[in-house]
From TrEMBL:
Gene Ontology terms: biological process: actin polymerization or depolymerization
Gene Ontology terms: cellular component: actin cytoskeleton; cytoplasm
Domain of life: Eukaryota
GO MF term list: actin filament binding
Gelsolin-like domain segment(s): 70-155, 208-254, 331-396
InterPro entries: ADF-H/Gelsolin-like_dom_sf, Gelsolin-like_dom, Gelsolin-like_dom_sf, Villin/Gelsolin
Organism, scientific name: Periconia digitata
Name used for this protein in its record: Gelsolin-like domain-containing protein
Length: 401
């Protein structure tokens, strides 16, 4: 991208615009590693040393710690970096005499999360700082690029619930609506279950939506906060877990604001009050179906799995070929001398073999962009890049599913 184009920012960010093509050059590694040594967010004696979940928001080109009490809450106008460090047992060959303390290692997953209305400068900073954090962790992390409207299974599993709010911090280039809203502005939250929530997990998503009756849907639960009261509207086809999570959300709200709460079922005639409060006083509920698209990409429902190899083994020319598809894909299909792209249906992984050539490491992003351009149903998928020997649980789960 020419330098002058960097000052022109689309209203909504396209992750494919992030410049990560050069992340494997020697110069880039040196620059990122040097920069990482002076980033206060990483140099606190904890990052890379202890397991845990850590979140930062990009504010005016800087990495700012996100309050723990807000973990799981994100503004659609912002970009965030999330680090999940997990202690796992090392594979040792020392037999019974091996030192138990030497069997533990930290496995890192870094997510940079891009709100639907984040600005180009925030998204670019998040992408850059994600690579820098990986350098700080000595290249041991799996990098994930997450889009607001299509969270990956691994990302959704980090939180008991994900709450998406309108607004965002003021950008370095572009001013976005601030987080603080006047008290008289009604807030409408939509509560629904992630379509691919893992067994045993709630996987509840909470999105702030436009406070109008057109935002309602009989499949979900909605919470409306007005200046004097909190209303809960339960769609006739909502699930018990959605009702339970709505109760938790309302409890959190009333602890701080002490407002009266009224719960209504859409089957009750009194539920018309809820619709009226959202500007639907003229709506006939007997003849009107309340059905609003969920604020998620429809592409999260894809169930295709394909494995492709990127290789220059044949005469130095790059080839990109389908290796296997469906349930036939397995660990043994990966070759340490090449780069592989796994389209897991709900997410795309790039696997870099330790013996991959410089050209293969450099060209994977361009090849991935071309692949996505030719598969419209993959545009909104989350993308993760892993390195051989440093794969996380989410990658192997996708391979073996």
């Amino acid at each position: 991208m020419p330098p002058h184009e960097g000052l022109v920012h689309p209203k909504e960010y396209d992750w494919r615009d992030s410049n990560v093509e050069l992340i494997n050059s020697d110069l880039d590694h040196k620059i990122k590693h040097q920069s990482a040594q002076h980033e206060p967010a990483w140099n606190n004696g904890v990052i890379g040393m202890a397991p845990g979940l850590f979140i930062w928001r990009i504010e005016d080109f800087e990495v700012k710690q996100w309050p723990k009490e807000k973990y799981g809450s994100f503004y659609e106008g912002d970009s965030y970096i999330i680090l999940q460090s997990e202690a796992v047992k090392r594979d040792t060959e020392g037999g019974d005499g091996a030192d138990e303390t030497e069997k533990d290692k930290l496995v890192h997953d870094i997510y940079f999360w891009l709100g639907a209305h984040t600005t180009q400068d925030e998204a670019g900073t998040a992408a850059y700082k994600t690579v820098e954090l990986d350098e700080f962790l000595h290249g041991a992390a799996t990098q994930h690029r997450e889009l607001q409207n299509s969270p990956s299974d691994a990302f959704a599993a980090l939180f008991p619930r994900i709450k998406i709010l309108r607004g965002g911090v003021a950008s370095g280039f572009t001013h976005v609506e601030t987080n603080e809203e006047p008290e008289h502005v009604d807030t409408l939250l939509r509560i629904f279950k992630h379509p691919r929530a893992a067994a045993g997990r709630d996987g509840i998503l909470i999105h702030e939506v436009e406070p109008t009756w057109q935002s309602l849907d009989e499949d979900d639960v909605f919470v409306l906060e007005t200046s004097s009261k909190i209303w809960v509207w339960q769609g006739k086809d909502c699930s018990p877990i959605e009702k339970m999570k709505a109760a938790t959300v309302v409890n959190d709200m009333t602890l701080a604001k002490h407002k009266e709460v009224e719960v209504l079922s859409s089957n009750d005639s009194r539920s018309k009050i809820f619709v009226d409060n959202l500007g639907g006083s003229d709506v006939d509920l007997l003849s009107t179906q309340l059905k609003a698209p969920r604020p998620m990409s429809a592409h999260t429902e894809r169930e295709v799995k394909k494995l492709f190899r990127l290789s220059d083994a044949e005469g130095g020319d790059l080839s990109f070929d389908l290796v296997k598809e469906g349930n036939a894909v397995e660990r043994g299909d990966l070759d340490s001398n090449d780069v592989f792209i796994l389209d897991a249906g709900s997410q795309i992984f790039v696997w870099e073999g330790q013996g991959a050539s410089r050209k293969e490491k450099k060209m994977w992003l361009k090849v991935l962009q071309r692949y996505i351009a030719n598969h419209a149903d993959a545009v909104d998928l989350a993308v993760s890049k892993v390195v051989q020997g440093k794969e996380g649980k989410s990658f192997w789960t996708a391979v073996e599913a």
